[in-house]
Amino acid sequence: MERLQKLDLLDKKINAQLMDWDPIGVGRMEGFEHNLWEEYLMYIPKLRGALQKGEAIKPILDWIEGESIGGFFTSEERRVEISRQIEQLGSKYF
User: Fold this and answer.
1) How many of the other CB atoms lie within 10 Å of CB of 79?
2) Whole-prediction pTM value?
3) How far is CA 74 from CA 19, 34, 56, 57, 77, in A?
4) Which of 1-10, 20-29, 50-59 has the largest mean confidence?
């Protein structure tokens, strides 16, 4: 919970998008729902860095799901949708 308190507004908004995406369904696992707030925090710096540089977010989401998590659980279309939403956040900040 301490890590959440250190997030600025942009980081919180990125985290909200990642929680909405929730590729492994943590938010739907009985007894683990409370972990959703912290589940994807480790990816925020990589996403924020890409936003600052004006880089595409979709390849990062592909890497998160396919490599870091170890398999694709959401559709290509869903990753495109979440990528666009995160990129829109970046356009408001950078």
Assistant:
1) 22
2) 0.88
3) 13, 21, 18, 16, 8
4) 50-59
Tokens 């890409």 identify what position?
50
Q: Tell me what percent of the chain is helix, strand and coil, each rounded to the nearest 5.
A: 75, 0, 25
pLDDT tens figures, 27-53: 888 877 677 888 899 999 999 999 999
